[in-house]
Design goal:
Layout lengths: L3 E5 L9 H15 L3 E6 L21 E6 L5 E6 L10 H22 L7 E4 L4 H12 L1
Parallel strand pairs: 1-2, 1-5, 2-4
Antiparallel strand pairs: 3-4
Helix pairs in contact: 2-3
């Protein structure tokens, strides 16, 4: 049975290491298996701590990317702008988390009047991604 699955987290494909790599591969596998998947994420920046090509020109605004699979599944990636510090510290990482929270919240609010997702997956490192997931499921 086809499920609607929403991922929330700022690390995602095409990041080559860490959470971004595995989260992107998981959502791609689910979409290839026939599910309707969406990801609310940011632009790839890790581990270089700067937004990577070809996304640099879009990094200050929202971007939607959709891939359809022969199985009938689909992966829609909603990229949200986020502050990426050149030299991460405790304070700048907190600012980074809050900037993603604010822009992702705007994106989630556009989903509130649409068909609901069956499952919501929120992934660390940010606690605020969990808050976004809980907010979406409550509305």
């Amino acid at each position: 049975m086809k499920k609607r699955i929403l991922y929330i987290g700022y690390n995602f494909s095409p990041e080559l290491t860490g959470i971004g790599k595995y989260s992107g591969e998981m959502m791609e596998w689910l979409a290839q298996s026939g599910h309707d998947c969406s990801a609310i994420t940011s632009y790839p920046y890790y581990p270089q701590w700067e937004v990577q090509e070809p996304y640099v020109k879009h990094k200050y605004w929202f971007l939607k990317e959709t891939t359809n699979y022969p199985s009938g599944g689909r992966l829609t990636v909603y990229r949200c702008p986020m502050y990426v510090p050149k030299k991460p510290s405790g304070l700048t990482r907190i600012l980074s988390d809050f900037s993603f929270f604010a822009s992702a919240l705007l994106q989630i609010m556009t989903f509130c009047c649409k068909k609901k997702y069956t499952y919501v997956i929120s992934v660390a490192p940010t606690f605020l991604a969990g808050v976004l997931g809980a907010f979406y499921k409550k509305n």
